[in-house]
């Protein structure tokens, strides 16, 4: 009887199942030879996964049919179970919601443009940074994603993009759920894999990878030491500490001046232009004087501003700035010598736009549970 009881209990894991994206080539070779497989299969499997975006061993037709199950179990367990895949913008924006081994949920968004395909990737389930205008921030942090859970989102994005005829994945932005620099050790490994040439990695150019952060200064400095010229995006949202303390609460720890200093050091080290993210929130941070102050802080620096019209989140008291206010803000930044672009608002209909990720899926889940 006790056996039956034990079997009926769900198996508790403390970590996601072992996956090749968490392992070195040598580790994979060792695991395969321990299973009685030739070591060369490690490269074969890694090439299929990283370069051809085959995510399960069953579909790897160059593996012997009778070995695919056991190899899959050992090195390619399913890390991301699709909950929902939605598209909008004529199929050019796709949002995928994934359930992880422990039922945590994360989302990725794929956006196809004439000259590029960009995937917006999550680095954590939830987020601990508590920015009051962001849906993910409201729910708090569930946990860090593993390196393989991050990498697997990228591989799936590449696969979905190819299957849907959207083109080859070319760009990655860590602007999904979570604060990437709060998951530094795992993010670092994921960045290495994303930018390593095939077949050891996914083979994207580091210049096409953007890490967006609230401004965790010590981690920005660590990123600079990595010699990986990824683009750094700083979620500034206010040029003054008084307002930024409220909009981006980590500002109570690292002030605007410290964050910008770390950003300029990053730019000097990598020669990469830093992107300053600024969500335009009506009557909060959109005053002309704040545009002028921001321009003064950024003029002459290797930086450009990316304005994001606020996507109001459910229950939020805040709204996007009216178009004339936004236009005035842009004009003042440009007049102050700061290159400025306005972010398109892809994916709104499918809750796939900035700051919307997660809330809708959680809500659906609660409804499912109630039914
Ligand atoms: N934690 C990282 C990545 C988060 S999301 C960071 O903060 O940078 C990427 C961007 O979307 C950030 O600039 C974030 O502030 C912004 N964002 C969050 N909620 C938003 C909303 N409701 N409308 C517009 N932008 C939002």
Structure, described:
The protein is an alpha/beta fold and 371 residues long. It has two domains: 20-75, DNA polymerase, domain 1 (Orthogonal Bundle); 81-370, Aldolase class I (TIM Barrel), CATH 3.20.20.70. It is 37% helix and 18% strand. The protein is built from 13 helices and twelve strands. The longest helix is centred in the middle third of the chain and has 17 residues, at 147-163. S-adenosyl-L-homocysteine is lined by residues 129, 131, 133-134, 175, 179, 212-214, 235, 277, 279, 308, 310-311, 313, 354-355.
Give a quick account of the main beta sheet: strands, pairing sense, barrel closure: 10 strands, mixed
Mean pLDDT: 91
- The SSE order reads HHHHEEEEEHEHEHEHEHHEHEHEH
- Rounded Rg: 22 Å
The low-confidence runs, each spanning 5 or more residues with pLDDT under 50, are 1-12, 366-371
Q: Give every kind of bound small molecule, once each.
A: S-adenosyl-L-homocysteine
CATH architecture of the largest domain: Alpha-Beta Barrel
**Class of the largest domain, according to the CATH hierarchy?**
Alpha Beta
Can you count the beta strands?
12
Strand order of the largest sheet: 1-2-3-4-7-8-9-10-11-12
**Helix- and strand-based class?**
alpha/beta
CATH topology of the largest domain: TIM Barrel
Which overall shape is indicated by the principal axes computed on the Cα atoms?
Answer: elongated
**Helix share bin:** 25-40%
**In percent, how much strand structure appears in the residues?**
15-25%
What is the assigned CATH homologous superfamily of the largest domain?
Aldolase class I
* Number of separate domains: 2
- If helices are DSSP runs of H or I spanning 4 or more residues, what is the number of helices? 13
What is the end-to-end distance? Answer: 33 Å
């Amino acid at each position: 009887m006790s056996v039956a009881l034990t079997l009926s209990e769900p198996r508790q894991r403390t970590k996601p199942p072992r996956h090749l994206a968490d392992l070195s080539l040598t580790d994979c070779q060792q695991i395969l030879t321990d299973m009685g497989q030739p070591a060369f299969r490690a490269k074969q499997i890694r090439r299929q996964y990283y370069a051809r975006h085959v995510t399960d061993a069953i579909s790897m037709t160059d593996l012997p049919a009778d070995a695919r199950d056991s190899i899959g179990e050992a090195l390619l367990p399913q890390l991301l179970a699709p909950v929902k895949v939605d598209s909008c913008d004529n199929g050019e924006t796709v949002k995928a919601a994934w359930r992880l081994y422990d039922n945590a949920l994360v989302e990725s968004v794929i956006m196809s443009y004439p000259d590029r395909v960009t995937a917006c990737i999550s680095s954590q389930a939830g987020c601990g940074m508590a920015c009051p205008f962001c849906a993910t921030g409201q729910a708090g942090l569930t946990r860090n994603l593993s390196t393989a859970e991050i990498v697997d989102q990228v591989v799936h994005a590449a696969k979905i993009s190819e299957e849907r005829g959207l083109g080859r994945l070319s760009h990655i932005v860590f602007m999904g759920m979570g604060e990437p620099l709060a998951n530094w050790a795992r993010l670092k490994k994921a960045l290495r894999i994303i930018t390593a040439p095939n077949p050891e990695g996914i083979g994207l150019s580091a210049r096409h990878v953007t890490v967006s952060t609230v401004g965790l200064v010590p981690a920005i400095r660590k990123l600079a030491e990595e010699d990986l010229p990824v683009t750094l995006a700083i979620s500034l949202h206010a040029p003054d500490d008084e307002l930024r303390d409220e909009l981006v609460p980590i500002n109570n720890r690292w002030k605007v001046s410290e964050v910008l200093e770390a950003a300029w050091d990053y730019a000097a080290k990598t020669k990469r232009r830093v992107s300053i993210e600024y969500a335009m929130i009506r009557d909060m941070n959109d005053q002309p004087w704040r545009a002028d102050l921001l321009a003064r802080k950024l003029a002459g620096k290797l930086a450009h501003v990316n304005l994001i019209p606020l996507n109001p989140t459910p229950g939020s008291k805040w709204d996007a700035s009216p178009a004339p206010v936004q236009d005035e803000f842009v004009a003042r930044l440009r007049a102050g010598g700061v290159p400025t672009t306005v972010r398109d608002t892809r994916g709104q209909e499918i809750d796939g736009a900035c700051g919307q990720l997660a809330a809708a899926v959680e809500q659906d889940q609660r409804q499912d549970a109630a039914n």
